[in-house]
Amino acid sequence: MPTTFPHMLKPLDLGFTQLKNRIVMGSMHVGLEDRFYNYGKLAAYFAERARGGTGLVITGGISPNRQGWLLPLGGTLNRYGDVINHRRVTQAVHKEGGKILMQILHAGRYGYHPFAVSASNSKSPISMFKARAMKDSEILSTIKDYGRCAKLAKLAGYDGVEIMGSEGYLLNQFICNRTNRRTDRWGGSVENRMRLPVQIVKRVRQEVGADFIVMYRLSLIDMVENGNTWDEIVQIAQALETAGITILNTGIGWHEARVPTIVTSVPRAAFRKVTARMKKELKIPVMASNRINTPEDCEDIIASGDADLVSMARPLLADPHFVNKAAAGEPEAINTCIACNQGCLDRTFSLKRATCLVNPQAGHETERVYVKTTRPKKIAVIGGGMAGLSCATVAAERGHQVTLFEGGDDIGGQFTLAMNVPGKEEFRETIRYFRHRLKKTGVTLELKKKVSAQDLKNAGFDEIVIATGVQPRIPAIPGIDHPKVLSYPDVLRHGKKVGHRVAVIGAGGIGIDVSEFLLAEHSPQPLQAWADEWGVDFSSAEPGGLRAPKREQPLRKIYLLQRKPGKKMGQGPGKTTGWVHRLALQHHQVKMLGGVEYLKIDDLGLHIRIDHEEQILDVDHVILCAGQEPVNDLLPVDANGKIKDKRFHVIGGAKLAGELDALRAIHEGAALAAAL
Ligand code: NAP
Ligand code: SF4
Q1: Considering only CA atoms, which of 616, 610, 499, 509 is closest in space to residue 558?
Q2: Each residue of 13-30: pLDDT tens digit?
Q3: Alpha-carbon distance 292 to 426, whole Å?
Q4: Among 39, 45, 169, 488, which one carries the catalytic annotation?
Q5: Is 37 a catalytic residue?
Q6: Which residues, 6 or more positions from 561, have their beta carbon under 8 angstroms from its beta carbon?
Q7: pTM score, two decimals?
Q8: Pocket residues for ligand 2 (CB within 6 Å)?
């Protein structure tokens, strides 16, 4: 009987069925849902989460008809012929003792195709296609399509459906004045605006009967102008409850909102009190979501009565065995999601299959398999950064005898710089995870050990992995030795004092990190500070839950510079997080300059030229964030750069410093270890 997380692990009785615990894998598009030939992989993906103890999983969005597609030819369930594919998924989950819902998603004006429809003629700021207003007859046939879709889902063996009514998709577009300008029975008053979702729930219930879960994801804060007020949201939730939903799931923010809702800098469990407020208004179970990633928070949310269930999507992508590890009293073994979006959403939005930065197997359960070795080898891994840690632990897990050498006094490499950046504290969890994993897999760790080529020659290793990482690039600018000049490790690791006026050379991921580090103020109430910065009103007294932001004068005057021309700066971080960083820098009045030519650094500051015009940036310090160079001097190479000794391998930044990121490092390390 588990003792560590009793509330989180307590079953939930829904009357006609029981969920074995309170953890739900929320819906997330992984890119396997859209093609029937990927359903075997999709089945393995969900089965792994069910095997790991998750009580209930929810699929990515499946459309009830063609107009509802998110992407052209996106996953649709409206024909009996498709049931068989879905059955592979439901059977795999049930075999592992889990339950599964299918999410029904109509993208509305977020549809990336010319058939997109919405409540009114409109185009979202994040779409290419203009959506057409639905006719009354189309609305009625869409209600029928939802009903048929749910009925087919039941036939396919799902335990229920989730109706996606948040994040700005079709049903959200109907219930908000922002996008619904109709004057017929589907627009105007809140009763009219919620008519479509309510009719859909009634129709779905009629088609599936009483013994089937109907979950509804409702936007509890829209975070866009002209969204709903709290009173309207409560009225809608109560109407949905009366119409027959089993569980209400929390949705936060539209996709087009300019307030971050899930990235690392959003405080953990930021929206739990919004869910708690809604729970008081309903009799049915209510589920919390967004930026919840530890069993401690899950337990606290359930134990305190803020919610009945907790939804996590990315944390279960990162570690499918999250629940079992917590239940075994081993939460430190959990590979925690760091909310970076690099492996998952950034890839999904680039139309690639999702995986996870910290878990290369995610989304590739049938392909990236770590097979136990029958010929254990003696392996040396040099470098305790992300590439080395990943390689050493996977190789040891496979049964090899691994020694990891690290020249510094701790593991983590470049990653330990990122974790000092405010809003990136989650990165510490990955270091904690690897520390635990090294012990668990039996890797011998030798810290403060600078290995020489001679050491490697004499030690009799069968395989030698060079994962020695990178060093900061020092650009050839006259005056680069001036005392004003600092490197990014000087600032992020060594805590060198930095003045009030600063020029940052290089506007990649690290230049942005350094700028955010230099602007950060410590707040005793991080959630309040975050809401003040982004103008969030948790009470949604005003439509959309937005208010005027409260921002302090910035701590420093920062110039963020790059040589590439153009206004689009700070393209380093990913597709789904870059805008958050760029906006945060704008909030702090960072001056971003592109097309810069660096002339010299002297007592007056940094001399630059832009568009043939010279200027001097009168700064106290110039911080170099100009990329990196590989460190790989232990690699025995011939005159052509070819590795001379077959035992040697090179991974991560040591192999290629350009475009290095933690995802590539971890994935390359694991891939090599799987093949050794
Ligand atoms: P980066 O993204 O490649 O950026 C390097 C910057 O230095 C660029 O702005 C480049 O712009 C400039 N630069 C390059 N050579 C230069 C030279 N010789 N003189 C002056 N400027 C020069 O590298 P990074 O910022 O060091 O980041 C390393 C990796 O970590 C990247 O892959 C990055 O995406 C990743 N990372 C990601 C995040 C995240 O939040 N997702 C955060 C940190 C790091 P110009 O050439 O135009 O001047
Ligand atoms: Fe979490 Fe990043 Fe993995 Fe996505 S890629 S699941 S955000 S750790």
Answers
A1: 499
A2: 999 999 999 999 999 999
A3: 12
A4: 169
A5: no
A6: 503, 504, 505, 506, 507, 592, 593, 594, 596, 598, 608
A7: 0.95
A8: 314, 317-318, 337-344, 356-358
